[in-house]
Design brief:
Blueprint (H helix, E strand, L loop, with lengths): L5 H15 L16 H29 L3 H6 L11 H5 L8 E3 L3 E2 L2 E6 L5 H14 L2 E2 L2 E2 L5 E5 L4 H10 L8 E4 L5 H16 L3 E5 L1 H4 L8 H18 L2 E7 L19 H5 L2 E7 L5 E8 L2 E10 L6 E6 H22 L6 H8 L3 H13 L3 E3 L9 E3 L6
Parallel strand pairs: 3-9, 3-10, 6-7, 6-8, 8-9
Antiparallel strand pairs: 1-2, 4-5, 10-11, 11-12, 12-13, 14-15
């Protein structure tokens, strides 16, 4: 073996060991094996026909025929240390958590889910452009980094048009790939190689379904087998990976995000961050929810600009909904007066189809804000009066 072949030797060592151990051969790339291509190709052919046992028999023959093969395999480095003490971990100084979007999206593997045509790709593209330029997205200034966007559902023309629509910069740190091997084949190994060579800070895969060949998204084991190595890769190489995925038919913004992704819940379990985008097709306003291991649960109201297709945060979902509900109750008081009815907590609740307890809390808030006052009681019924009208 020569020093110049060290990368090929290391790769070949790992590939042959994987075949000898009966692991999948799909990710092995012959062009990375250097002078060992013919040897690995022989073992791959045997693996396809006779599996692990056949590979072991063929390897024992090849060791006697191919110069240096025995030394190559003997030179496999010792595996990394399998465990550490609490003392070692507590004495280790770890770098601070990196954020793709400060206080919203931390580093790691993120699954960005939503229904078809909801605007996931627009959001991902705007985040990609912001990171590449050190610009702004979702109301936050983001740190500059190098970005790869794997756009398997878009042509170069569409990417061109979308970049112009969002007002993107002609950045030299934002890269696009319109084709990529399936993850189960060479896609995973290629991604690792690209990360090693190019040191991307953010990689976006659009979409997960297009990255898969035959894996069953409803099968927990298969999803863990695909996503587990990707999540591990983000830890090993310190980059962020965003995977765009589809929501199931029952996805609800008021339900846990872990129940929203199409297929097995294992997809949610592997991810470091879950991002859910919810919007009715006929509306520009939607909700963006974020949940993860290193971020507090967030629920925001967002709006998709019709002019430049950019998602903008308009407020916290709870606050926005409370404001809307207060307006609804105020309007109900007026409507009931116009209808000749007494605006009490019960009649208001029926009028707006809302829980009585929620109506009572909103009425207390409106009283404290001076928007309404209590009218004269009619038996046990407490009427409410709009301050603006001065009476009913």
């Amino acid at each position: 073996m020569t020093t110049g072949d060290s990368d090929a030797n290391t790769y070949t060592q790992t590939a042959i060991q994987a075949l000898l151990n009966g692991q999948s051969a799909d990710a092995i790339m012959l062009d990375r094996c250097g002078v060992w291509q013919e040897t690995v190709q022989t073992l791959l052919a045997v693996h396809a026909m006779d599996g692990k046992d056949g590979v072991r028999q063929a390897f024992n023959v090849l060791v006697k025929q191919v110069d240096g093969l025995a030394h190559l395999i003997a030179a496999v480095p010792e595996p990394p240390k399998l465990f550490r003490t609490a003392e070692e971990i507590m004495n280790t100084e770890y770098p601070p958590l990196k954020w793709v979007v400060p206080d919203l999206i931390p580093e790691g593997l993120a699954m960005l889910g939503g229904r078809p045509k909801v605007g996931k790709s627009w959001l991902a593209l705007h985040i990609a452009n912001a990171v590449a330029t050190g610009g702004e997205t979702l109301g936050r200034q983001v740190p500059q980094g190098k970005v790869l966007y794997v756009a398997l559902e878009d042509s170069g023309r569409r990417i061109h048009d979308r970049l112009h629509t969002i007002g993107a910069a002609k950045s030299k740190t934002l890269f696009f790939a319109e084709e990529w091997p399936f993850l189960e084949r060479h896609g995973l190994a290629l991604l690792e190689r690209v990360i090693q060579d190019e040191a991307f800070d953010l990689v976006i895969l659009d979409t997960f379904t297009r990255m898969l060949e035959k894996s069953d998204q409803t099968n927990s084991s298969e999803m863990a087998a695909v996503l587990g190595p990707l999540q591990r890769m983000t830890i090993d190489y310190g980059f962020s990976l965003h995977i765009l995925d589809h929501h199931n038919k029952l996805a609800d913004p008021d339900a846990p995000l872990s129940q929203s992704l199409f297929g097995s819940v294992a997809k949610s379990g592997v991810a470091d961050v879950l991002i859910g985008l919810f919007r009715k097709e006929s509306e520009r306003q939607g909700r963006l929810k974020i949940s993860g291991r290193d971020v507090s649960d967030l629920d925001m109201v967002v709006n998709l600009s019709g002019e430049n297709a950019v998602w903008q945060v308009t407020g916290d979902a709870v606050d926005v909904q409370k404001k809307a509900n207060k307006e609804l109750v105020l309007q109900a008081v007026k409507d009931l007066v116009d209808l000749g009815e007494t605006p009490s907590n019960l009649t208001i609740a029926r009028h707006v189809d809302m829980n009585t307890g929620n109506v009572n809390r909103l009425l207390q808030t409106l009283l404290s804000e001076g928007k309404i006052v209590r009218g004269e009681k009619k038996g046990k019924v407490q009427p409410y009066v709009l301050v603006e009208t001065g009476g009913m």
